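Hey, can you fold this?
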Amino acid sequence: MWNDFEVERTVFADRTPARPIAFVESRYIDPRTFWSLRLRKTF
């Protein structure tokens, strides 16, 4: 959703075909911490 600020990341233990999961990280992102940078060419 457009207002869903929770991100889930799955980290795998190694690169073998079985790929066991090391851990799953769930993080809430505060929308007020986003930055914006705008550049404009005027010449």
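Oh, and this one too while you're at it.
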Amino acid sequence: MGEWIDAESLQAIILGAIVALGVLAALVLRIVRKLLLRLALVVLIGALAASLWLQRANLQDCVETCSCKLYGQKVAVPADANPNCV
């Protein structure tokens, strides 16, 4: 990941993405007419949201160990979050 992004800012970004996925799921339920397609899209969106939520939980815990990763990509830990991470 880029140097401008760190574990704390990613938590806010992930929450925003989860909210956006919720809005997308509501739109799918309202717009898509075919039941099977609607169900498949909502399950896919739900799985993505759950995956993001789990990654967010991992970001909260990794600040102590200084080894933060998001989907396998290393994420910088800010010095004010853990001064031992330099």
